[in-house]
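Known limitations

Files may contain more than one protein. Parsers should not assume a single record per file. Below, a two-record file is shown to illustrate correct handling: read the sequence, read the token line, then continue until end of file.
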Amino acid sequence: MSDDIMVVSSTPNGRDPRSGQFLPGHTGLGGRPRGSRNLLTTEFLDDLRATWATHGKSALDRCAIEEPAQFVRIVAGLLPREAQLDVNVEHSIFSNVSGYAEAFSLAIGIIKGDPPVLPALSYDSSDADRP
């Protein structure tokens, strides 16, 4: 029965003697702090930043001209895969349009912040008595 029990002994530094890994519950100092980068990553990002400052725009221009499909993949990779938005539309603004094309044009203008001029509304004095 004593063969079924496994005893894990640790070294004074809180590590497993066989694997060298820290044991559960170890609270000593060990390893890099969370979020820190190793030297290779830091140097690579510094080199990337310097190269981008020198060749970034011209590389994008060349890619767009010589390899448009790859350029589109790069741009698509930077965009979020999903977007959630809430849209509230005041339906009464479409009451005076005569068809789909006019409604579409009006909607695009509103989205762009430059709605087309709407026809003047006439004032009906009988509406004044309504709540």
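...continuing to the second record:
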Amino acid sequence: MHTTDPQPAGYEKRDATIRPLVESGVLLVVLCLVTFWSMIYLHHWLQSFEQKKEPFGNALTAAREVPPAPLLETAAHMPLNWAETKELEKPLFKQSGLSDVRANERTYLETYDWVDEQAKIVHIPIQQAMQRLLEQGLPTRK
């Protein structure tokens, strides 16, 4: 017959035993610690190995060369090394490089020019474009 005796509170003892769960948890923690310490040891060993190597690396790397002095941008008509010239004074020369780029940009921003002549598209000076934008406003959806 069926009995209706109350069962004690807790867990069902035949399904889960606590000992294997605790042992596997402890084993997992130990494995993590062993892995952590072995990685630290490996890191220190590789670091000391790198410090013992030659200053130029291994045999496959090219020898390090001291780079030459910086090559500054100069005008095309100027010599790279003034010591090679026999002139006593440095001639006046036109500015080149960044100043030329800035001058070209300034010219483009301050003048009229064709963007596409066949399509009749022209760019206007930036000050005039900003003034028109203030007067007309930005286009909006309706």
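Parsers that stop after the first record will miss the second one. For reference, the second record is described as follows. The chain has three helices and two strands.
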